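Board notes, transcribed. Complex of a protein with 2-acetamido-2-deoxy-beta-D-glucopyranose.
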Amino acid sequence: MKAIAYALLVAVYILQARCEEQCSLPADCFTKWEEVCGELFPSSLCNVMCPKGCNLGERIRGTGTYTGDSAICRAYVHATGTDGGFVAAMGTEDKRFFIGSSLNGIRSESTGARSTSFAFLEEENECGGCQLGEICTDVGEGKKACVLPLDCNANWDNSCEDYNRNGTCLVMCPAGCTRGSSVWGTDIYRTASSICRAAVHSNADLAKGGIVTVVAQGEQASLAGTHRNGVGTMGHYGDIDQSFSIARSSEACGGCEAFETCQDLGDGQFGCVLSLDCRQTWEDSCKVRYGQEKCRVLCPEGCKNGGGIYGSDIYTSNSAVCRAAAHAIPDMKNGGVVNVLSQGQQQGFAGTVRNEIGSGAYYKPKPETFSFVETTSACATAGTPCGPEQTCQDVGDGKLGCVLQLDCRIYWGITCKSHYGDGPCRVICPSGCKSGGGVWGTDIYSNVSAVCRAAVHAVPDLNEGGVVTALPQGEQVHFASTVRNEVTTGRMFKRWPETFSFAEATSACKEAGLNCEPHQTCHVHEDGKKSCVMAVDCYSRWSDTCKFQHGEDNCRVQCPAGCVKGGSVHGSDVYTNTSAVCRAAVHAISGMKSGGLVTATAQGGRLTFPGSVRNDVSSGNFHRKWDESFAFVETTSACAAAGLTCAPHETCVEMGEKEPPVCAMQLDCWVKWADTCKHLYGDKPCP
Ligand SMILES: *[C@@H]1O[C@H](CO)[C@@H](O)[C@H](O)[C@H]1NC(C)=O
Ligand SMILES: *[C@@H]1O[C@H](CO)[C@@H](O)[C@H](O)[C@H]1NC(C)=O
Ligand SMILES: *[C@@H]1O[C@H](CO)[C@@H](O)[C@H](O)[C@H]1NC(C)=O
């Protein structure tokens, strides 16, 4: 019966269709939209005449947009507050949610997707006309505005995208949106995020719902995932085209940027900070927001894990800021506010473990880097401000000092040299640097040597790490390869302008009142006496060592074992300047095969250098005038003990048990009288 009656009504309506907008379908407070408009005008305009008094009647579902089975005239009162009259409704499509609310004395219910729905066309209302689905409602301060009702799942893409005016979208959020669909970001959110949940994340007061102004924010490089006000958001790393923020009215900070958070900084102070998560890098956060300016960030707790970090105290621009903060600053494991400074180009980055976080090493230049003001604040408070590259550490005796943190591989040229040029470089070395990067030299090392591994080589007891001071040294022509403290260094014969040594290397001698030269080492004799000596290898030549270091008289040389092999040697007892000192020592002095100390002294010119085989070393002969040569004080010590003083070119020959030793000159089968006997002894007998 009802269907027939309605068909009649429709027929009347169609007959009257010519009478344009005055024509309308009759409805009462129980008539559902689908009964009156749904069949004839499912997706177009449908005019209905409503009676008064529809605050009672059939139930309705939705706000702004209603399900097709809602009573049209009651829904109209709910949406507009107007009781009865001419109503223009429009079928709507693709609605995924219907949010229930109490408006104008009527309660509507919430529900999920329905096949049919409708909204009211409000071209002239108190708000000056709203879009389909919006309601004109009180937005505070006595103002009315068109508002889009949302539920806790609606996101920008399926709501504000079509409703924003100049990038601003006014929405009505229900209470309880701590739950709802996912949210990405912090202060600025990805458009796929639930708007009303994002609103609670942004402002705790919005947990009870209300009118929210959503602002389009355009492209973003990365978004932080954080926990706030009972809402956990996800991070998003990589560029996105569109985003939104929740507008803030009044706050303690008095106006932060949309991407900032107003944060209690303690002592009643509030300030705008950039909220980050444990993965966001400096170049995707601070740099995007503030360029090279100081960046105040709020870090969450738990950044022991997170994005990769490279460096120590100064980090590469692609390092995760908050994880770097937890690495650099001891009490950052619980999160907090830190000040980040841009540091510009750096040559190299030490990888270290601090506060249970390991940073990666990077031994190439990076044009953009950052550090934290707080890294060295303990030293600043103690009146000794540090540089940004430094860390404030216990430097012994419980005193705080500024030091440069290194790892076991980073080399002089990209740390000490790049930070301090020709000045001293106080560093802190980690433990375990007997393994690490390459090292060239002994006591003085080339600029491409790993500073901390060289320190283990040069300074006793440094394998457990500690503070040492590296000093730049001038040009060297030779770097000796030696084994010390389980570190074997490399050998290099090359004129090399940039080198370094350690202030602490010879401190044992300094305590004994001896000031060793940088190229010297402090030798502790069996009787505990100390002396400054030069450590060389089996290839080190006189010209590159004693001669180069200006120690031509009584040049105390520490020889390693095994110099039966080594560099070439020319002469006997007196050797050419190009001869390897320690191999010559094995040749000249019996008992030097296992190494030890010898004293070499310059000998000036000779006309010839005879070769000979002694102590398993065969020296070459050189029968030409040559201006620089050397000999050893110890060569003739057996004769000296017997009361005989041999000349430097003489050797002490043992004559057996019965006879005393004699001093004699070593010749070979080519040596001429004039170059030797005549030259050295004149008319005297020639032994
Ligand atoms: C939109 O923004 C433009 C430029 O900022 C302004 O001229 C215009 O009045 C705004 N329109 C509305 C509806 O706010
Ligand atoms: C090391 O020193 C050499 C020679 O002075 C120089 O050419 C080179 O650039 C330096 N290397 C570094 C990394 O400083
Ligand atoms: C060795 O001495 C000669 C002079 O006899 C000198 O010309 C030469 O430069 C010296 N060699 C080195 C490597 O210093």
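DSSP finds 14 helices and 52 strands in the chain. The radius of gyration is 45 Å.
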